[in-house]
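@channel sequence for tomorrow's demo:
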Amino acid sequence: MIEHINPQSLAKPSGFSHAVAVTASKLVFLAGQTALDASGKIVGDTVVEQFEQALGNLLTALHAAGGSPSDLVSLTVYIVDMDDYRAHAREIGAVWRRLVGSSYPAMAGIGVSRLWDVEALVEVQGYAAVS
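structure tokens (generated this afternoon):
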């Protein structure tokens, strides 16, 4: 069971949950995913395109572990250009809703100077609780 916890004494969350509690589930640790395609090349020129590919890759791994998007309990987004990411937040949110839905795990966005693949603009890493 997954419970999203958003205390009224904290600012109303937008695009994340303050806390997520899990009971009686298989915990799945999802490796960081960038916008690599099946051939190992980064695809997409924009942060939105790369976010969609990276999130899709993460969801593919989750499905292979027997899970679904609603099982995500925590997600970290590593971002090379925070200003660019924030400027496209609405488009990124639309990608999230299309691929995952309207449920949001506990999330963090972290600015980094670069990622493993120098062409990568974003990387997503997470945890899921699969029942």
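heads up for whoever presents: Residues 47-64 form the longest helix (18 residues).
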